[in-house]
């Protein structure tokens, strides 16, 4: 689900989504309008009764946390969000990263959200079935799994320091079920997106005090 910035004077503050192709909604086609994606972000907006014209999904395929800060965050500044969702880290795990660099970028994103007066929620990086199906070497597979753990550890640490909410992986444990994934093994399918949206909606409602954004 993609929507433009609300017009000046529009009621309510927008929900802003930052991240990669999973945050964009790949492999979960939108029924209306056809040809796009809805994903967990669009489904979350529905759970929270957020109109489509108040959802700004800036996520892009292949994005790392560096891309989020370099490309997406400048586009988000000035949107005055009430809710900020961050979903990235898999591309960082596949390509490698320095933990100090990830921490600094996360601090930039969460710092902006805090200064904007927004509720911010970061999605844990799951372990996709792709890792077990891929012909990559066992050494590289172990490296990627370790990087996923390291990225989640930085998400947890920086979230705690900045007041951002980071659900532990157990709260979204069902994403470990292969039935939640598309055939490529690296993107959630409609069931997976729906599940993540439902879990996050409960968290978001509590943080928003039962109010929509």
Task: Describe the fold and architecture.
It contains eight helices and four strands, in the order βααβαβααβααα. It has one domain: 3-Layer(aba) Sandwich (Rossmann fold). It starts with 14 loop residues before the first strand and ends in a 6-residue tail after the last helix. The radius of gyration is 16 Å and the shape is globular. A four-stranded parallel sheet has the order 2-1-3-4, with helices on both faces. The chain is of the alpha/beta class.
Question: What portion of the residues fall into strands of 2 or more residues?
Answer: 5-15%
Unreliable stretches: 1-11
Number of strands: 4
Order of helices and strands: EHHEHEHHEHHH
What average pLDDT do the residues reach? 91
Which geometry do the CA atoms define? globular
CATH superfamily: SGNH hydrolase
| Radius of gyration over all CA atoms, rounded | 16 Å
Distance between the termini: 17 Å
Kindly report the spatial arrangement of strands forming the biggest sheet: 2-1-3-4
For this structure, the CATH topology is Rossmann fold
**Largest sheet features:** 4 strands, parallel
Separate helix tally:
8
- CATH architectural label: 3-Layer(aba) Sandwich
CATH class category:
Alpha Beta
Question: Which structural class matches the secondary elements?
Answer: alpha/beta
- Provide the helix percentage: 40-55%
